[in-house]
Specification:
Oligomer: single chain
Number of strands: 10
Low-confidence stretches: none
């Protein structure tokens, strides 16, 4: 299982049209990702606007992704919640639908203690036998899952196989790698730290930028895996300005606008997210033109 989730894994956007899931655009986006060599896909992560999907829509997005992928790459389905019972239900659905694993965000808003985090994930791991990647993103949740708790969970539950580490801290990333079992997967949750984290023992990245440049992100990870560090470093620096552009406003607003400008989807986002400012659209167009994406 340790080799299943590695390299460049795209945190897919969810295309909308007339406030409904645009299934045709979503399927085309998935096919393009796979054709360009991406190593895995995540439906219903935060980039997929899972917070504003109904339960029925959440299930549909996962099912469409699994169907369109058709076993060509691993599918890591977002199934987390700040309600433990709901997270269990969503994770059971992901397993039943045929996902290869589940991505589970730390509970947001509740602000659980470290022991509360342990008990939350322990409850899910006991109920659902599916490989689980935990998702630590304090900037969105207000909650930082510390390395000792992560190590405890990894040792106690063999189906907890990794973490999406999105603190942006290489210090915490190092502590996670030191604390957890040797085969535990540490995936960067930030495009900016993908290569640095791999250099200290990480396994890859769950990427926003790969929505628009899947080949380049996959190429960087492939270069690192074949020990061509010079090429990996070159690509890291080449992509850095694009990574920054993807966060000039709250994710996934810029990446959806970029995909719209590239003619792949309607860039609509759901409230409380909203259309990018005209100034930032102009900046985004300049960057995309520099990368010959538009």
């Amino acid at each position: 299982m340790g080799k299943l989730f590695h390299g460049a894994i795209t945190a897919l956007v969810t295309p909308f049209k007339n406030n409904s899931i645009d299934e045709e655009a979503y399927r085309k986006l998935i096919d393009k990702q796979i054709a360009e060599g991406i190593h895995g896909l995540v439906p219903c992560g935060s980039t997929g606007e899972s917070a504003t999907l109904s339960h029925k829509e959440h299930e549909a997005v996962i099912e469409i992704c699994i169907d369109q992928v058709n076993h060509r790459v691993p599918v890591l389905a977002g199934s987390g919640s700040n309600n433990t019972t709901e997270a269990i239900q969503l994770t059971k659905f992901a397993k039943k639908a045929g996902a290869d694993g589940a991505l589970l965000i730390t509970p947001y808003y509740n602000k659980p203690t470290q022991e509360g985090l342990y008990q939350h994930y322990a409850a899910i791991a006991r109920e659902v036998d599916i490989p689980m990647i935990l998702y630590n993103v304090p900037g969105r949740t207000g909650c930082n899952m510390l390395p000792p708790v992560l190590g405890r969970l990894a040792r106690d539950f063999p189906n907890i196989v990794g973490v999406k580490e999105a603190t942006g801290s290489l210090t915490q990333g190092s502590e996670v790698i030191e604390t957890c079992p040797k085969d535990f997967l540490v995936l960067s949750g930030d495009d900016f730290t993908a290569l640095p984290l791999m250099c200290i023992g990480g396994s890859g990245v769950i990427s926003v930028s790969s929505n628009i440049v899947p080949k380049a992100m996959a190429d960087m990870c492939n270069a690192f895996e074949r020990n061509d560090l010079a090429e990996a470093v070159r690509l890291h620096h080449e992509l850095f300005a694009l990574h920054k552009a993807m966060f000039i406003e709250t994710n996934p607003v810029p990446v959806k606008k970029a995909l719209e400008l590239m003619g792949q989807i309607d860039g609509t986002v759901r409230l409380p997210l909203c259309e990018m400012s005209s100034d930032n659209v102009a900046k985004l167009k300049t960057i995309l033109a520099q990368y010959k994406l538009i």
